[in-house]
Amino acid sequence: MKGIRQLADHLDISIGTVSRALNGKKDVNEETRRRVLEAAERLGYVANQSGRALRKGSTGVIGFMMQTGHEITGQGDTFFMSVFDGVQTVFARHGLDLVALLCSSEEDPDAYLERVVARGFADGIMLSATRRIDHRFALLDRRKIPFVSLGRSLTDVGQPFIDLDFEGMATTVMTRLATRGHRRIAVLRPHDDLNLGHVFVARCREVLAEYGLVLEDDLIFNASPNEAGGYRIGQELARHPNRPSAIVVLNDGSVTGLFHGLEAAGLTPGNDIAVIGLHSPQARYLSPRLTCFDLSLRDLGISLAETLLASMPAYATLYPDAAHRQLWPLTLINGESG
Predict the structure, then answer these.
(1) Backbone conformation region of residue 8, classed left if phi is above 0, alpha if psi is from -120 to 50, else beta
(2) CB burial class (10 A; 0-12, 13-18, 19+) of residue 194?
(3) How does pLDDT run along the chain (338 residues), one tens digit per residue?
């Protein structure tokens, strides 16, 4: 049984009475309510969610847009699954459901989001993989759809965001390396136009300038965020005519490949070249032990969800202390690689 009309016909009760009984209205007597609920369960009644959403003016769904494909996310599934756990922990308090909006690597993300918005099935949107110039921000702002971004962009419409503190990471890691005598330091950043790469490189240059050092253009490497991308850069470093003494890796999926690429070329991470990266489940098995930055992904997801809800009128009063914009701290964990 798929509709309220069929349920009403079966019970020989008006559709209005059945609807009020299912929704717990007090003007329905208990015997009628009992009959309706028992019949609904016995006959497998399924509510028409689109109709219910139209009446309520909301869907109870929040969409999280992410791009798929090994070349884009690398091992990002482990990252997002932990973030999703924190997000849904918050949404469950309010009967909201998180839906992953998976944009194929072969599709334009702006066109994808335009199509999602046109269907109107989400009350709010979470964006990831924010680009230097990101037209998705303007689209959601223009359509008055509440959204929060996991990351920043030069396209700023005043939306709430949480971003990892890549400036703080750059300050810590470049200060550490410069004071330990490193003079030629490399950076491995994402291969596309993700804003985090621009933010990190800009701050690295500022910090190194304080020590009279320069982040040279030929030491800024770009690679896919996966093991193959890291392996390729490891090989390139080994062949470099003026090899740097240290490299900082911005994507956790590339670190393992970088280690293997260096080792295949006869170089030992932490000895021949210092390596500092982001923590990942795979990194814990590296030898020497990786010096890395870590964070609580579940807590990040919780804050991301609360930040979004604080911008939505129906929930704003429940989260008066949620940050509108926040840089999420990264903690340096000492290892043996750098």
Answers:
(1) alpha
(2) buried
(3) 457 788 888 889 998 898 888 777 778 888 988 898 888 878 776 555 444 444 455 788 999 999 886 555 555 567 889 999 999 999 999 989 999 999 988 899 999 999 998 888 899 999 999 999 999 999 999 999 999 999 999 999 999 999 999 999 999 999 999 999 999 999 999 888 899 999 999 999 999 999 999 999 999 999 988 899 999 999 999 999 999 999 999 988 899 999 999 999 999 999 999 999 999 888 888 999 999 999 999 999 999 999 999 999 999 999 999 999 999 999 999 999 99
Rg value, the chain, Cα: 25
d(CA 318, CA 323): 13
pTM above 0.85, yes or no: no
Strand pairing partners for 291? 276
Phi, psi at 94, each rounded to 5°: -115, 10
Phi, psi of 258 (to 5 degrees): -60, -45
